[in-house]
Specification:
Structural class: mainly alpha
Mean pLDDT: 83
Radius of gyration: 18 Å
Number of helices: 5
Helix content: 55-70%
Strand content: 5-15%
Strand order of the largest sheet: 1-2
Largest sheet: 2 strands, antiparallel
Shape: globular
Order of helices and strands: HEEHHHH
C-alpha cells in the first residue's frame, strides 16, 4: 500500500487567511491621510481583539440617548480596530471632520451588514 503525502493535507496560517480573504474580500478600501490604502475589514476577517471592540461598543453607537462624544469615540475605536493599518487610520481620524467619520463608519457598517448600528 502506497503511503500518502500528508504534507498536501496540512493547513497553514497563510492558506487559511488567503481562503478567508478570497471568500470575504479585503474590506472597504480607504485612502488614509498619509496616502496608504487601508482596508476596513469585514466581520469574518476580524481577529478576536477587533471583534471584541466591535461588540463592546455596538450598543453605544446605536443608542440615541448616548452622548455624542461617546458615540464618536466608539466609532473611532471601531474604525481603528477593523482597519488593516491601525496607525494610518488613527492618524487620519485625528484630523477628520465628525461628519466624514460618520460617513466612513456607516459605509463600513452597511458593507458588513451591521443592521441598525449607525451613528
Amino acid at each position: 500500500m502506497a503511503q500518502s503525502n500528508n504534507s498536501d493535507n496540512i493547513l497553514s496560517f497563510d492558506s487559511l487567511v488567503d481562503a478567508a480573504t478570497d471568500s470575504h474580500g479585503h474590506g472597504l478600501p480607504f485612502t488614509a491621510k498619509n496616502g496608504h490604502l487601508v482596508h476596513l475589514r469585514p466581520i469574518p476577517m476580524l481577529d478576536k481583539a477587533a471583534m471584541k471592540v466591535v461588540q463592546s461598543v455596538q450598543s453605544v453607537i446605536s443608542d440615541d440617548n448616548t452622548d455624542a462624544v461617546a458615540q464618536l469615540d466608539a466609532i473611532d475605536n471601531v474604525l481603528i480596530a477593523v482597519a488593516d493599518d491601525a496607525d494610518s487610520m488613527r492618524d487620519s481620524l485625528e484630523n477628520m471632520p465628525i461628519d466624514a467619520r460618520t460617513v466612513l463608519f456607516e459605509q463600513w457598517a452597511e458593507d458588513v451588514d451591521l443592521g441598525e448600528t449607525s451613528a
